[in-house]
Amino acid sequence: MMKYNLFLLIASSLLLQAASSPSNCFTTKYEVYIRSDLPSPLLNIHCFSKDDDLGYHDLAPKAEYRFAFCENPLATLFSCHYKWNGKDKKFHAYDATTSYNRCNKGICYYIVKPDGFYFSNVYPPNQGRFLCDWNPTTPCK
C-alpha cells in the first residue's frame, strides 16, 4: 500500500509540473502575442488569469509581448487590460469556455492600433481582421 501511495504522489507531482510548464503540455499549447502598432506614448498592458498574474508591461511602437500556456479545456481564461493615450480597454485574450475560440491553431496574435484591435491566428501575422475599437463598452468578437 505504501508503494502505491508513493507511486501516486510521484505521478501526481510529475503531472502537475508538466501541466504547469508550457513546454510540456498534455493539452494544446497556446501562444499569445501582442504587438503595438501605436505611436508614442507607450502601450501599457496587463494580462492575467485566475491563477497567473503576468504583470504590467510597457510596449514601445512595433514592440511585441508574448506569453504561453497549456490549455485546460474547461477553465482557461486569460484577460488583458490595455491603456494608451487616455484610452482604456479590457477583453479576454483567450477563453476556453466559449463555443467560439478565435485562437485556433495554438496562436493568438493581437495587433493594437490607434483605431482599435486586430487579430490573426498565424505567426508571423497577416494584417489581421478588425476585432474591436477602443470603446470600453464595445465587445471584441
From TrEMBL:
Residues in the signal sequence: 1-20
A GO cellular component entry from the record: extracellular region
Keyword Secreted: yes
InterPro entries found in the cross-reference section: Self-incomp_S1
Main location: secreted
GO biological process: rejection of self pollen
PANTHER family registered for this protein in UniProt: PLANT SELF-INCOMPATIBILITY PROTEIN S1 FAMILY, PTHR31232
Protein name, entry field: S-protein homolog
